[in-house]
Specification:
5 helices; five-stranded parallel beta sheet; Hypothetical Protein Ychn, Chain: A; alpha/beta
């Protein structure tokens, strides 16, 4: 009886850990940009390219998402991005690279500007950049802030 209970407990633990093991095996990283600094933006893009190249060389897939909010949203603004050309090129080169723009910040910038703020076509709007980073980490994504 005790052996059966121990086996059942061990099976329950292994079953519970299986999704975590699968998440640990996935190569996913969220890169955080919250500064209007071209050097920081380029460092984030360099990190993304280096990570993708590393895993590609290992024969593994990797998902990279650059999440912008606050002043970092300028990275994805069509009218102010100092790295727009590089984002366009990298988006074509790396299909597993994504860019997220915080809607809270976007709405604030729109109010301040008095007109709609244009985003790069590569940008996907998320409700909150900070919350999105939290959710990605809860889903097992690694976190990087260059």
């Amino acid at each position: 009886m005790l052996k059966r209970s121990l086996r059942a407990a061990a099976l329950a633990v292994l079953t519970a850990l299986a999704p975590m093991a699968a998440m640990a095996e996935a190569n996913r990283v969220a890169i955080h940009v919250d500064e209007n600094d071209p050097a920081r933006m380029n460092m984030a893009l360099n990190n993304a390219a280096n990570i993708i190249s590393y895993y590609h060389d290992q024969g593994e897939e990797v998902a990279v998402e650059i999440v912008t909010y606050g002043p970092g949203l300028h990275m994805l603004r069509a009218d102010t991005s100092p790295v727009a050309d590089r984002i366009a090129q990298m988006s074509l080169e790396y299909e597993t690279l994504a860019f997220s723009a915080c809607n809270n910040t976007l709405q604030g910038m729109t109010r301040q500007a008095g007109h709609e703020v244009p985003l790069l076509s590569e940008a996907e709007v998320v409700p909150s950049g900070a919350v999105h980073l939290m959710e990605l980490q809860q889903q097992g994504w690694a976190y990087l802030r260059p």
